[in-house]
Write a structure and sequence with these properties.
Elements: E1 2-7, H1 13-22, E2 27-29, E3 37-41, H2 57-60, E4 61-65, H3 67-74, E5 80-83, E6 98-103, H4 106-115, H5 125-144, E7 148-151, H6 156-166
Parallel strand pairs: 1-5, 1-6, 2-5, 6-7
Antiparallel strand pairs: 3-4
């Protein structure tokens, strides 16, 4: 099966990816796969993100997946788990057998963003303003498109166990 595990910044995607990798499953954290994601402007051209982009910057620039690179990852035999988020990910839902969305409340999200150590994205107020705005509709939209909602406020072992229970 081909599985997408998505969620807003701070929802636990990277932690879930690491736990699945420890189980010797084929897992890709989309932020860590060279050539899979990049910032693009509205014309699809690559752009370099400023260290502290203003909130408006996110209205005209998008964190997008590369269709060919994603296809290559998914063409591997057996189960493949992609953990990540992209502005254009809804265009690729049909490539996955299962799509899961990690659901968290705003308080939990902000706490995780402010205390995380592995990734600085989401620490700055400008970024958080954009993430909060996006969070409002992202989870609802993913569920409406068929994603299975996973309560990611629980301990990560329970989150992973629930995802795996849907893969049988």
């Amino acid at each position: 099966m081909k599985c997408l595990i998505t969620g807003v910044t701070g929802s636990g995607k990277t932690t879930v990816a690491k736990k699945l990798q420890k189980m010797n499953l084929m897992v890709y954290d989309s932020d860590g796969v060279e050539g899979l994601t990049r910032w693009e402007n509205s014309k699809g051209l690559p752009v370099k993100a400023p260290k502290r982009p203003p909130k408006e910057w996110f209205s005209n620039n998008f964190w997008n997946w590369n269709k060919d690179k994603l296809g290559t990852l998914l063409s591997a035999g057996g189960d493949v788990y992609i953990c990540g988020i992209a502005s254009n990910q809804d265009r690729f839902y049909a490539l996955f057998d299962k799509v899961f969305v990690l659901v968290i409340d705003q308080v939990t999200m902000l706490h995780r963003l402010n205390t995380r150590t592995e990734n600085s994205f989401g620490r700055y107020p400008e970024q958080q303003a954009s993430i909060i705005e996006w969070h409002k509709d992202f989870e609802k939209s993913a569920i409406k498109m068929g994603a299975v909602a996973i309560d990611a406020t629980r301990p990560q072992d329970k989150v992973v166990a629930e995802i795996l229970s849907h893969m049988k």
